[in-house]
Amino acid sequence: LLNSTFGRGISVSELDLKSFYDAAAVCGTTVSVGRAVSGLINGGVGTRNIPLYECNISLDPSQTIRDNIGEIMDTMGLAELTWSSEGKYKLLVEYPTTGAELDALVDASHYFTDDDIIREEIAISWPSASDRANQVTVQFVNEHEDFKTDSATWPLQFSTVHNTYLTEDNGQPSVKSTFLPGVTDPYHALAAAEQMVRHSRSVRELSLTVTKRG
C-alpha cells in the first residue's frame, strides 16, 4: 500500500495503523508448538512453532495491485481490507476464541435495536447444495519437500466428520479443490482446507433494511 514503485504509494495518514498492528499480532499468534519440519529453508529436519497465519509468496508486478493484495489476504482466512468511516484503509483479521472475545469485536455504540429496522422484509438464506463442500483438497508447494507440489485434504475420507457431512448431504460427495500460492507447509494447508469446508457449510446471509443509524 505504501510503496510507490510496487504498490499504491499512498501516505501513512491514509492507513488505520492500529488495525494493521492488531492484524500482525493475530497472524503471529502461536497455535501449535514444536511441530516437525524439514527442507532446506528450515535448515533440515527439526521443529518449530506454527503461527496462525504465514505467507510465503512471489507476486507478479504485472498483475493489478488489488489482485496482489488479494493473494496475500487469501492466506489469512476471512481477512478483509475495508475503507473506514474515517476515510482510511483498515485491515480486519478477527480471531475470537471465546464468546466474550466475539462480543468485544463489536463497539457498544454500533449496537442497534428493532427501532432501527425498517420492517419491509427480513430474509435469511443458507448455502445451496452446490456451494456446500463436504471435503476440500488444498494444493500447495511444500517447503518441507523443498517446494515440491503437494496437497492436504480435510476431512479424511470416511472419517467420523466426513461421514457426518455425507449424511447431512444425503450421501452426495461434494469435493472441491483449490491452489493456495501463499501456503507452503502442510499445517497451514490442512487448516485452510478445514476452514473452507466449515465456512461453506455454516455461512448465512441475512438481508434487511435499516435506518441510517443502523
Task: Describe the protein's architecture and organization.
With about 210 residues, this protein is of the alpha+beta class. About 25% of the residues lie in helices and about 25% in strands. It is built from 5 helices and 9 strands, in the order αββαββαβββαβαβ. The strands form 4 sheets. Strands 7-6-8 form a 3-stranded mixed beta sheet. Strands 1-2 form a two-stranded antiparallel ribbon. The protein has a two-stranded antiparallel ribbon with strand order 3-4. A hairpin with a 5-residue loop joins strand 3 (about 80-85) and strand 4 (about 90). The model has no long low-confidence stretch (mean pLDDT about 90).
Keywords:
214 residues; alpha+beta; two-stranded antiparallel ribbon; 5 helices; 9 strands; 24% helix; globular
Measured by DSSP, the beta-strand proportion falls in 25-35%
Amino-to-carboxy terminus distance = 31 Å
Helical proportion?
10-25%
H/E element string?
HEEHEEHEEEHEHE
pLDDT averaged residue by residue: 92
- What general form does the structure show? globular
* Structural class by SSE content: alpha+beta
Q: Please tally the β strands and state the result.
A: 9
Number of helices: 5
Weakly predicted, low-confidence segments: none
* CA radius of gyration: 20 Å
Major β-sheet strand ordering = 7-6-8
For the sheet with most strands, the description reads: 3 strands, mixed
